[in-house]
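Look at one record.

>
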Amino acid sequence: MTSMRARAVAAGVIWSIFSILIGVFGLASYLDGQTQARFDELLASRHTQAVIAVAGHVKTADMITDNIGDPVYRRPFSGHYWQVERFRGDLFVSASLVDVLLPRPTSETGVIQISNFVGPTGEQHRRIQEWITLEDGSVWHVQVASSLQSLFADRQRLRGNLVLAFGLIAVVGIMAGFLQATTVLRPINDLRRDVLARWETDDELDVAAYPTEVTPLVTDINTLLERNREIVSRSRRQAADLAHAVKTPSAIVRNELEKLRAAGQPVNDSLEALDRLDAQLKRSFARMRADGGNAAMHTFTDLDGALGRLIRAFTALARNEEKTLNSDVATGLRVRMDQSDFEEVIGNLMDNAMKWSKKEIGIGAHVDGDDVVIRICDDGPGIPEEDLGVATLSGQRLDTSKPGTGLGLAIAADLAHAYGGKISLHACPWLGGLQVQVRLKASGI
C-alpha cells in the first residue's frame, strides 16, 4: 500500500473497529450485569411479598396469592411461580404451576439462595428460596421463580440496539477518518500542484503557505529546483558554445570542398559525408538542448504564433512549386515545448512533406485529452507499412531518389521525446501518402 491517504484511512478504520469492538463487548457486559441485577431485584421483591403473605396468611394458596396481588400467579404456566411448604407439613403452590411442582429444597439453611433451573415448560428459570421461622415457631420454605426469557429478550434487544448504534458510530468514524486524512494530506496535494505549476512560471514555492511540518520539504524543493536550473542553464550554454565552435570549421571545410567541386574534382562523396556530419551534430546539439533544459523547465509555445508562421511560410513555398497546403488548426493551443525546438520539429516534418508530396499537403492540430495532436499529411508515395517502425531511427534513408541525410525524422522524434511527446507514422487516410502524428503535452489549455 503506497498511498498515504489509503494508509491513514486504513489505520483509522482498523483502530475504529478495534475500539468499537472493545466498546461493544464492554458495554454489553455492563448492561447484561445491570439487567441481571434488575431482574434479581424484581424477583427478590416478589419473594419478600411471598414471605410477608406466608407470615400473615398460611391457610390456603388462594389467600397467599391474594396477598401477593400479582395476577401472573393465576395464569397457567405464565413463567412466574411461587411454592411454599411447611417443614414436614403443608405444601402450597401458585395456580400458575397447574399440576407440577418447583424443585424441592435441598437444604435447611436459613440463608437466601438464588439459582437457575429448567422450569415446567422447558425454559430456563431463576428462583430465590429461603427457610423462614415464623413467630409461632413454625418453619417454612418459601421460593419464588420467574422465567429468564424476558431477561434474554431484553439482553438481545439491548445488544441489537448497541450493534446499530455502534455501527452508525463506525460509519461516522470512517467518514471522519477519511475527511481527516484528506485534510491532513491537503498540503501535500497543494505542494504537488504548485510544483507542477512551475511549468508555467518561474516563481519559487511560498514556504509560508505550508504547514510547519511541510516547510522543510518545501525549502529543499526550492533549493533543488534552483540548483537544477543553474545546472541546466550551464549545460545549455556549453552546448551552444560547442555548436558555434563546430559550425565555423564545418563551414570552412564546406567552402573548400565547393571550390574543389567547381574546379572539377570528384568531391560529391565528401560533401555528402559532411552533410551527414552536420546533420548528426545538429541532432546531437538539439538533444542536448532539449534534455538539458527546456524539457525539464517551465516553457510553452503558442501554436497561434509559431505554427501560424510555419504555415504561412510553407504556403508560399507550396505555391512556388505549384502545390497546395491546407490547414485545419484549432485556435488557442499551447504545447509544453520550447518554441525554437517546436519550430524545428514541425519545420522538418513539413519540409519532408513538401519534398515528397505531388500536389497537396495537409496540416491539422487539435486537443486530445491532456495532449495536443498535430497531423501532417501529403499525397506522396508514403512509406511501406513494414518500414514505418524504423523510419524515425537515425540515418534510415528509405528512398535515395531525393537529397537528404535521413536524419530529419530522427531529430524530430528525439526532440518530441525529450519533451514527453511522441511521433508516430501512419498511412494518410485522405491524401494517400504519409501521415506524421506529433503528440505533445498541452500547456495551460
About this structure: Residues 24 and 162 are 7 Å apart (CA to CA). The longest helix spans residues 4-56. The longest strand covers residues 124-133. Confidence is low (pLDDT under 50) at residues 394-405.
